[in-house]
Amino acid sequence: MKRMWKHRHLLAVMTARELKARYRGSVLGFLWSLANPLLLLGVYTFVFSLVFQPRVEGQSPYPVFLVCGIFPWVWVSSSLNEGTTSLTGNAGLIRRSVFPVELLPLVPVLSNLVNFLLSIPILVAALLAARALGHPVGGPAILLLPVVILAHLPFVAGTALALAALAVHFKDVRDIVSNLLTLGFFLTPILYSVAAVPYQTLRALILWNPLTPFVLAYQDVLFRGRAPEPAVWAGMALASVVAWSLGAWVFDRLSDTLIEAV
Amino acid sequence: MLPPTPTPVGQGELAVRLEHVGKTFRRVAAGYPFRTLKSALIDRSLVRDLRPEESIRALRSISLRVAKGEAVALVGGNGSGKSTLLKIMAGLLRPTTGTVEVDGRVAALIELGAGFHPEISGRENVFINGAVLGLRRAEIERRYDDIVAFAGLEDFIDEPVKNYSSGMYVRLGFSVAIHTDPEILLVDEVLAVGDEAFAHRCLRRIEEFLAGGRTLVLVSHDLGLVESLCDRAHWLDGGELRLSGRPRQVCDAYREAIAEAEGRQHKEEKEAAAASMGGPRAAAAGGAAEASTSGDGSETHGGQEEPRRWGSRAAEIVAARLCDGDGRETYHLRSGSEARFVVEVRAERPLDDFVFGIGIFTPRGIECWGTNTDLIGLRPRRLAGTATVVVRCPELLLGPGEYLVDLAIHARDGAPYDYRRRVFAFTVTARERAVGPAPGRGAGRGLYLPHNEWRFEGGVEWEEDPGEE
Fold first, then answer.
1. How far apart are CA B323 and CA B342, in angstroms?
2. Residues B45, B55 contacting (CB under 8 angstroms)
3. Which residues pair with B244 in a beta bridge?
């Protein structure tokens, strides 16, 4: 932790570099980071307003409900996927220089966070459009969004740290993570609300999913326009504290041996 | 449990202190990642609970100290543990046993492209590298122009580093490291990659660095550089410290050991070659059989290869060896010492026309010396049965290097009886410095080290004793 703070300049340089590298050589540059969320929003609007018309209580308009959960999810899943390979992918750097390795898993977390933040104006625009059409969505609760993101950050960062360190020892971690994330998408109430799940056990599983409170909170402050319930806050705090402590512990224990194993 | 590295030395004058440092690596081929994850989590080591056959001991209990302001070299063969030791000093690797204490800000140039990110430009790498070495952005900006100018990369600094040549990599790496003003600089054999001009600039920079009271630890195979630059040298062999001391002393001992090993190898090769020829009889028979097919009696090793032995075998070379002044067989001689080439010959039937010849060649085929009994004015009368020919050079004036010996018996008109190329090889090392009555003898470089005397007239003065210590 202390070392991370000491190297915050380096972390900033690395993150900026990562973002620049991603769009270097492309004509539209960083506008591409807006293209993907816009495209998602457009496709969902088309599919769920014109093709299917799901009539679900409290989720109308459905495309807007969807993106309120999906945008944060994209942050989580890209961060964890990229974070997992952040050490193995930079083996040369780690082996040859006295590099603060703990920064490497954090770089994709932060660069994807920037992308997430860039997509927020689109979310806001979508919410405003829905309100203009007479849907009772959004509201001043959106001011709580920074708090939710800050509460979410240690969870993503801690998980990325642990996965990155474990992936050095076991190549399988990468595949496990990408598959678990696909599964996790459906075990998180992004496409549906928890109340709509008919089976008790499945509902319990969804509620115990550490990502559920975060997604609920995003939907609360963005879509439902209300502050999250205390239980949701507690869930977020617990998930973040546990993920960060565990991640930092695993990484710390493994950091001495990473250079040899990578 | 070991204290974390690095911790302050606390004695003021030491920059690095290693106490009984050992390092064991896991053999990846041996498997067992589960067990190593457990030991990594519990013991912070990948090797704690491995069996010996699953691990490699790269270093065994090394203790050494580097004083502040000292320039220290680590020499030794490949796999002797030099780079591992340097990585441990850099804090890149953790020792399996022992303690490491480093006092001062360290910059390390480990291997090529020390810590560059291949996909991004040299410019950004300078900033990242500088930040890794603990500089703030403003500090890097201030030194940026110097860094790029020193590396000579003004035209390429915005190219991605992956497109750099290895020389450009090293130049940039060294330039960043030296400009970040470290207190301790660790350099692993990277200077050899740059061109001559850059090497000179680096050396000048390193000398300035040392003049500023900074500390250098250098891993190098360039023993000349070690001798000229460093205050101390440590010779690592098989993960152990074999010798520490003044660079000259250590490098000489190291060179000596290499030459001895080469000498042993020359002997083994010679014996193996003799064995594979199946003795002179079989060789003669082979030569005869060959004569019927290739016409000139050449004994070839197949294909286009140059023949190693040819001739009618009216007389033959049965055996040959190299001996020193005491008559001991050896294939390692010091320049300027006595050498005896001992050749056993045999003639089935008495001959009255014969010449013995010897030639010494470099591995690249340059003839250093060649002579025969005809050239020195001996007129043959009779050779019958077995005989021994000894060619004695009271002072072998060859420079340090490897040499190959050709031997021949032929008729005075040149018709070969037995011509053997590359009969054996030997290694010559420089004689011990500044000993003996004539310091000019056997010292210097090149193929030929003739006796030489220097005379000076006018305003030239020399120290009384130019020798060691």
1. 7
2. no
3. B234
Average pLDDT over residues B366-387: 92
Contact B126, B140 (CB under 8 A): yes
Coil vs helix vs strand at B130: helix
pTM of the model: 0.71
For B33, the closest of A9, A100, A169 (CB atoms) is: A169
Q: What pLDDT does residue B434 have?
A: 46
Share of chain A above pLDDT 90, in %: 40
Q: Which two tokens stand for residue A139?
A: 């509201």
Contacting residues for A14 by C-beta, under 8 A, at least 6 apart:
A103, A104, A107, B128
Give φ, ψ of A259 to 5 degrees. -60, -35
**What's the Rg (C-alpha) of chain A?**
19
**Residues whose CB falls within 8 Å of the CB of residue A206, separated by 6 or more in sequence, listed in order:** A187, A188, A189, A194, A197, A212
In chain A, residues 61-100 whose CB comes closer than 8 Å to chain B: 90, 92-93, 95-100
Q: Identify from A257, A258, A259, A262 which residue to disrupt to test chain B contact, counting B C-beta atoms within 10 A and taking the largest count.
A: A257
C-alpha distances (whole Å) from B118 to each of A153, B157, B366, B434 are 29, 13, 44, 50
- Please report, as a single letter, which amino acid is at residue B412: R
Q: Does B41 touch chain A (CB under 8 A)?
A: yes
Count how many Cα atoms sit within 13 Å of the Cα of residue B217 in the half-sphere of its side chain: 31
pLDDT of B229 higher than 80: yes
Strand B383-393 and strand B232-237: the pairing is: unpaired
Q: H or E element: which one contains B249?
A: helix B247-276
Please tell me the distance from the alpha carbon of residue B6 to that of residue B101, in angstroms, as a whole number: 5
Interface contact flag, B114 A96, Cβ < 8 Å: yes
DSSP letters along chain A, please? -HHHHHTHHHHHHHHHHHHHHHHTT-SSTTHHHHHHHHHHHHHHHHIIIII-----TT--SHHHHHHHHHHHHHHHHHHHHHHHTTTGGGHHHHHHS---GGGTTHHHHHHHHHHHHHHHHHHHHHHHHHHHTT-----GGGGGHHHHHHHHHHHHHHHHHHHHHHHHH-THHHHHHHHHHHHHHHHSTTSS-GGG---HHHHHHHHHSTTHHHHHHHIIIIII-SPPPHHHHHHHHHHHHHHHHHHHHHHHHHHHHHHHH-
d(CA B145, CA B396): 54
Which residues are within 8 A (CB) of A158 and not within 5 positions of it... i.e. 6 or more apart?
Answer: A240, A243, A244, A245, A246, A247, A248
Task: Summarize pLDDT for B335-351 with one digit per residue, the tens.
Answer: 888 999 999 999 989 99
DSSP H/E element including B376: none
CA distance B456 to B469: 25
| Contact between residue B317 and residue B343 where contact means Cβ atoms under 8 Å apart | yes
Position B435 pLDDT exceeds 60: no
**How many CA atoms within 13 Å lie on the side-chain side of B249?**
12
Structure tokens at A181: 């994330």
Query: Kindly report the CA angle at B118 between A254 and A158, in degrees rounded to 5?
Result: 30
> What residue type is B193 in one-letter code?
V
Average model confidence (pLDDT) for chain B? 81
The residue behind tokens 């920064």 is A103
Count how many residues are written for chain B.
469
Any B CB within 8 A of A17 CB: yes
